[in-house]
Amino acid sequence: MRQKHFYLLCVLPLVLLLLPIGAAGQTREVTVYFWEFNRDEPGDDMIPFKRVVDARAPLRPTIEALIAGPTDAEDTDKYASVAYGAMKLSDVRIKGSTARIDFVREIREDFNPGDLETLRFEAAVIRTAKQFPNIKKVIVCVNGINEFGIGMVEGRPKPCPAKW
User: Fold this and answer.
1) For residue 29, is pLDDT > 90?
2) What contacts 24+ positions apart, CB below 8 Å, involve 21-25?
3) The pTM is what?
4) Is residue 151 part of a domain?
5) Domain range enclosing 65
6) Is residue 15 part of a domain?
7) pLDDT digits 0-9 by tens, 71-117
8) What is the mean pLDDT of the chain?
9) Is residue 36 part of a domain?
10) Which terminus of the chain has a lower count of CB atoms within 10 Å, N or C?
11) 53 domain residue, yes or no
12) With left for phi above 0 and alpha for psi between -120 and 50, is residue 155 left, alpha or beta?
């Protein structure tokens, strides 16, 4: 009986404590999309690139890889990150099947990303996030504002939803 208590009180907690360490080595391959800006043919396109991230919570490191852009080994004379204006990832949250991904960037008088650059960024973030089967809808915010689509159509900033 004492040996049973010893295992329950000493060995089992140690095993449970060490379990997360073993799980930390689990990774998975994901896809991020970079802009192909030096094309041989007209137009532009988003090209998929593979990255390896932590399998336990893959969305945040996948989005970080997206804004980091191509590696030196990839053709940086042909492909580029879709992030603009010194974009930084601020927050990633998931509620049900909706992901909200918040970014921050410096607003400067001498830099305007333009319509296509912002829409290209939003499309790449949404496409990248929706590769995960639990994500059906993606809300993308920059400095708490929807810099894409309807915000541009209305000609004024469109705040991201407080409740989603």
Assistant:
1) yes
2) 23/56, 24/54, 24/56
3) 0.78
4) yes
5) 24-159
6) no
7) 988 877 788 888 888 899 999 999 999 999 999 988 777 777 766 78
8) 81
9) yes
10) N
11) yes
12) left
